[in-house]
Amino acid sequence: MMRGTRSTLVLLVLFLALGGYAYFIESERAPASEADANEPVFDLEADAVVELEIAAENGDLTRLERAAGSRSWDMRSPVEAAADDNRATAIASALESLEIERVVEADPADLEPFGLDDPVVDIGFRTDGDTALRRLRIGDTTPTGGDRYAQSGDDPRVFLIASFRESTFNRTTFDLRDRSILEFEGPDVDGLAIAGPAGPLRFRKADNAWRMVEPWDVRADFGVVEGLIGRLGSSEMRSIEVDSDEADGADLDPFGLGDPRVTASLELGSASAVLHVGVETEDAAVFARDASRDLVFTIDGALATDLERAAGAYRQKDLFSFRPFNADRLSVVRDDVTTVLEKTGGDDGDAWRRLEPEPADVDRVAVDDLLTKLSGLRAASFTDTRDATGLDAPLATVVVAYGEPAEEERVLIGRAGDAAYGAHGDEPGAGVLDDSAVDAALEALDAIGPVDAAP
Questions:
Q1: Which of 188, 228, 257, 455 is most exposed by smallest CB count within 10 Å?
Q2: Tens digits of per-residue pLDDT, 131-184?
Q3: Buried/exposed code over 420-437 (b: 16+ C-beta within 10 A; e: otherwise)
Q4: CA angle 88, 92, 97 (to 5 degrees)
């Protein structure tokens, strides 16, 4: 017990010593009452900032500029390149909103105790109409960790700013550069071509729907194609291996870019954006280059893997394109019996009537259940052929008319052994379906019956 009590007393003494140090350093410095609470460090509007100069903690010195009234920033040094507009604008906005938490010393004789003799971060900025840069210098973190020492311009005062602000200002040249691997607007893309290990793949977009046109003419999965285009548009460089000022005459073979393993081409009307993908780096990234720019960079290896997917990964896996709410007519041939249902206008909204084999009004809930189960049929994978799928003698042939303007689709459903298959129109091969989902759809068809007559 004596040893435990002694340890507790030692910890208490250390705690009091640390608290006393923080108190005397932070609270007992000669305070300057000249600053009002929440006094802004600078009187400026972020939109008026047209030049930034950032000396980061790692030693990078980066200068950015933009035209007055513009939202787009350009990097002027150490290289000429497009800048990251979001990060540059964030710095300008942070300068506008920066506030003095407390003035520590009004006229310090020595800046070294605050880390301001050699600042961690030094920001220069100029607003439209200024002839010289104004400055913000950020020094060490306070002992309590919640603030940082800072100075502005020619003002001798040392004051505190919130520590979290440092991460906004402390940006390297790479941080401040536009790191987009390709420059394009997603909605403008109307074509995609991929040349790689899986062979040539080509896609076309029309009426807000994607279709694969090579190696097959089939419906494409909208989400998969759009997802890949979105990743190409949002992915950023992990590093720059050869910059534009070094790229002239550079040998691309060591990066696997003399003969790229994958080339992805996005078509945007008469324009295009092209990404070449090379070999892997030692840290599982992949070398790549934008065909329109003279630089070599690295990208995330997962994106390169996605670009190498086989054609089957892009096929539309939904067996049907219609949705229960937009179907107007349904014809099912099963066991040599043809059932035809048609939507009509009933007193309480849309109603359904069976035209064949026995005309009658049918239960709308039962029809909705059938349409839901049919539209939910989805391929888990695809076969390259329809042989041994049972589709030569199908369990059911389904034709659905839907939409406005009206469209029609024809689907075959077959079974071979314990597996069920489906084929949409003349699309090659067959989709492998969930056998229990097929049984549920056929049972829903059997459940369609006439509406009970009123007593």
A1: 455
A2: 999 999 999 999 999 999 999 998 999 999 999 999 999 999 999 999 999 999
A3: bbbbbeebebbbbbeeeb
A4: 140
Dihedral over Cα of 34, 40, 41, 44: its sign: negative
**Which run of H or E residues covers position 411?**
strand 407-416
pTM, 2 dp: 0.80
Q: What does the alpha-carbon distance between residue 115 and residue 140 come to, in Å, rounded to a whole number?
A: 5
Distance between CA atoms of 286 and 238, rounded to whole angstroms? 9
User: Read out DSSP for 138-193?
Assistant: EEEEPTTSSEEEEEETT---EEEEETTHHHHH---HHHHB--BSS---GGG--EEE
Peptide bond preceding 359 in cis form (omega within 30 of 0): no
What separation in angstroms does the CA of 424 have from each of 249, 314, 327, 329, 332?
51, 15, 16, 17, 14
**Cα separation of 95 and 52, whole Å?**
11
More confident residue, 112 or 245: 112
326 SS3 class? helix
Residue pLDDT, tens place only, 77-108: 999 999 999 999 999 999 999 999 999 999 99
Total residues belonging to the chain: 455
pLDDT 10s digits, 17-69: 555 544 444 444 444 444 555 799 999 999 999 999 999 999 999 999 999 99
Strand order in the sheet with 286-290: 218-219, 209-214, 201-206, 191-195, 262-268, 271-280, 286-290, 296-299, 239-242
Q: Which residues are bridge partners to 289 per DSSP?
A: 276
Q: What is the DSSP letter of 215?
A: S
Cα dihedral sign, 301-307-313-314? positive
- Number of other CB atoms surrounding residue 418 within 10 Å: 6
Over range 406-411, report the average pLDDT: 95
Q: At what angle do helices 364-375 and 435-446 cross, to 10 degrees?
A: 160
pLDDT tens, 274-324? 999 999 999 889 999 999 988 999 999 999 999 999 999 999 999 999 999
> Please, which residues have CB within 8 angstroms of residue 345's CB and are 6 or more apart in sequence?
351
Alpha carbons 64 and 87: distance in angstroms, whole number: 11
Q: Quick one: pLDDT band at residue 250, thresholds 50, 70, 90?
A: confident
Selection from 208, 316, 197, 190 nearest residue 265 by Cα: 190
Kindly give, in sequence order, each residue whose CB lies less than 8 Å from that of residue 347, ignoring residues fewer than 6 positions away: none
